[in-house]
Amino acid sequence: MPHAPEIEAIKSKMKSTWEAGDYGTFAKYMEPGAVEIFRSWYISPGQKMLDVGCGTGQIAIPAAKNGVRVTGVDIASNLIQQACSRAQAEGLDAQFAEGDAEQLPFPDASFDVVVSLIGAMFAPRPEKVAAELLRVCRPGGRIIMGNWTPQSLPGHMFKAIGKYLPPPLDVPPPPLWGDEDTARHRFSQGTSNLTLTRRHYPSWTYPFAVEQVVEFFGQYFGPVHRAFTVLPEPAKADLRHELKHLFAQFNEATDGTTSLKGEYLEIVATRS
After folding, report:
1. How many CB atoms lie within 10 A of CB 201?
2. Structural domain boundaries, residue 120
3. Three-state SS at 129
4. String of b and e for 1-17 (b: at least 16 CB within 10 Å)?
5. Which CATH number goes with the domain that contains 130?
């Protein structure tokens, strides 16, 4: 694994990547699916829930509306600001804080449920992430993650970006969190009743064609926005072409719109 100075540089670049573009706008088309996933987790009103990698509140805001006692944490400052503004505008009692999934700013056993939907999987040291999710969850509480699989559209997308902007050495690819054997190993200590289920992200649709979806990602989604910003024109054109081909492969719509199929691994564990 990288040494401490290298990790700090990696995290600084990661933070700037996720703060790029406009994730609040990007997430609007994925939020209906996030709400559906949240409902499937059956988190009861009154339970204390931590949302790690909360973004602009795609899970946290619906949870707070349902009476869950919500805290959200994310590495990106501007996303936390947007989540706070959303909660205030809707009069919701939800707390948000900037923080690192590898060093969560909360005491041991603080939460009944600790969740992360396509969030904590991007931190560079997954073993530390798993340990932190367990640490802040009370004994008998649940840890729930939804992570893109390597075979998913996002798994292929990040691999494509990595050909043009190589990821840091010795940092595991984020979609490995979506591999059953890897996830089982990372939660091999401190859990009971570990279940791993492959699912497809619901309601991931855009009312425009694949070509426009790729441009939408390039404008609003941090990792693609960064690639389109820093790559020289020939490489950017090649990546854009590759992404259009990839998105077309995973598009299930036939009417000129885009309905993407995105596989993720759902991890549910009980803190022992």
Report:
1. 22
2. 4-150+168-205+262-271
3. helix
4. eeeeeebeebbeebbeb
5. 3.40.50.150
Helix (H, G, I), strand (E, B) or coil at 165: coil
215 domain-assigned: no
Secondary-structure breakdown of the chain: helix, strand, coil percentages, each rounded to the nearest 5: 45, 25, 30
Give per-10-residue mean pLDDT for the chain (272 aa): 80 97 97 97 98 98 98 98 98 98 98 98 98 98 98 98 94 98 97 97 97 98 98 98 98 98 98 98
* Total structural domains within the chain: 1
- ∠ CA(115), CA(69), CA(136), 5° rounding? 45
Amino acid identity, residue 29?
Answer: Y
Cα 27 from Cα 228, distance rounded (Å): 19
Residue in the block written with tokens 């944490």: 73
Rounded alpha-carbon distances, angstroms, from residue 271 to 37, 125, 140, 189: 21, 20, 5, 9
Residue 90 lies in a domain: yes
pTM (predicted TM-score) = 0.97
Contact 171, 142 (CB under 8 A): no
DSSP states of 32-45: HHHHHHHHHT-PPT
Q: What is the DSSP letter of 164?
A: H
Residue 135 within any structural domain of the chain: yes
242 belongs to a structural domain: no
What is the SS3 assignment for 235-269?
HHHHHHHHHHHHHHHCECCCCCCEEECCEEEEEEE
Environment class of 25 (CB within 10 Å of its CB; exposed 0-12, middle 13-18, buried 19+): middle
Comparing CA positions, the residue from 103, 110, 146, 98 lying closest to residue 128 is 103
